[in-house]
Amino acid sequence: MVVSFLLTATISLMSDYNYQDNCKEYIFSDSKELGRFFETYKDLAEIRCLRVCLKKNMKTWVFYSDNGLGQQECYFELQDNIKFLPNEVSMPSIEQLDLSLLGLKKFPDFLVSQKNLRNLNLSFNRFDINAALEKLMEMKQLQVLTIFGYNIHNEAIDKLQQSNPRLHIFFSKEQYRASLNKE
Fold first, then answer.
1. What is the pLDDT of residues 100-134, one digit of tens each?
2. Whole-angstrom Cα distance, residue 49 to residue 47?
């Protein structure tokens, strides 16, 4: 088994994919504080670009390995995890959203109803990306989807690409390394 070790300052993941300069960024001390933010501000009507992150997760080890069957496997350790985000969140103006490194254990269902969302980063979370495939396929307006850190099957990527031919998907070990080299 070949293993690649990567130490990364993951705070910069978002900037590589044309996020707006005026993007709102909130760094929370822990998952409880982040949860309170979404519970308190369910209507984030004016925000067009948002990045939320947990301070403890801003630097993490990422391991990619080849399982010998031509599939990549990714392992990462986060210091803090949030189980889910509330479904009642409304961001009608959101175009770019970074929910990476939160350790989400459930796909944020509210994303499907965000009709202006063009650029989404869900990298390094804990939910089953293959199970969320149908919901991602409903998001026809998406132009960029960043999903580093998932053990996703090539068939799933093909299916996503077929459902939305203009969608650019960043998911592979090679793409992740390239994003790190841009720093």
1. 999 999 999 999 999 999 999 999 999 999 899 99
2. 6
In degrees and rounded to multiples of 5, residue 142 shows phi and psi of -60, 140
Angle (nearest 5°) at CA 128 between 39 and 162: 105
DSSP letters for 56-108 = GGSEEEEEEEE-SSS-EEEEE--S-------TT-B-TT--EEE-TTS--SS--
In angstroms, rounded to a whole number, what is the distance separating the alpha carbons of residues 31 and 119? 23
Mind listing the pLDDT tens digit for each residue in 46-89?
A: 889 999 999 998 888 887 777 666 566 788 889 998 888 988 88
Q: What is the reported pTM?
A: 0.84
Give the pair of three-digit tokens for residue 102: 């939160």
